[in-house]
Write a structure and sequence with these properties.
By secondary structure, this protein is of the alpha+beta class. Helix content is 33%, strand content 31%.
Length: 150
């Protein structure tokens, strides 16, 4: 098994759009509770905009993107690791970059059903502060807002 130390982190750019969208699609496909709402073209368009306007970090192994985080204005908007690279510490390294970039406080939303993500964030000091019935998100699934403070 390879380790997170075999992975290089760098700032993401719009040239990473294709790879970021692919990691996003692969990671979400592994979450059986999520409906597929958008085409791959729509995902690429969305992430092109996100990478252009927000801060980001990508994790590369042998030059290929295996994870990414997109963040800004106090929020972690996306943190995904390719399923083939999960459990290696890559998410923790990306999360450290997010904390460095955002400073003293970070907020995020994750789905209530995403037990793995919830355990990950709680292990890294995030606390649940709000729960919803999902009526405010596109997937219409219950979610949890987490916060972390330095």
């Amino acid at each position: 098994m390879l380790a997170a130390m075999d992975v290089e982190l760098r700032t993401g750019t719009v040239t990473d759009t294709e790879a970021v969208a692919a990691v996003f699609g692969a990671a979400r496909a592994g979450l059986g509770f999520l409906p597929r709402l958008h085409t791959e073209d729509e995902d690429r368009s969305f992430f092109r905009g996100q990478l252009a306007r927000l801060q980001s970090s990508v994790a590369l192994r042998n030059g290929a993107v295996v994870g990414f985080a997109i963040f800004g204005e106090g929020w972690l908007h996306h943190l995904y690791v390719d399923p083939t690279a999960q459990g290696e510490g890559i998410g923790a390294r990306l999360l450290a970059r997010v904390r460095d970039g955002l400073g003293d406080a970070v907020q995020l939303w994750t789905f209530e059903a995403n037990a793995g993500a919830r355990r990950f964030y709680e292990r890294h000091g995030f606390e649940p502060v709000e729960r919803t019935d999902g009526s405010g998100n596109e997937e219409r699934l219950p979610d949890v807002r987490y916060t972390w403070r330095a």
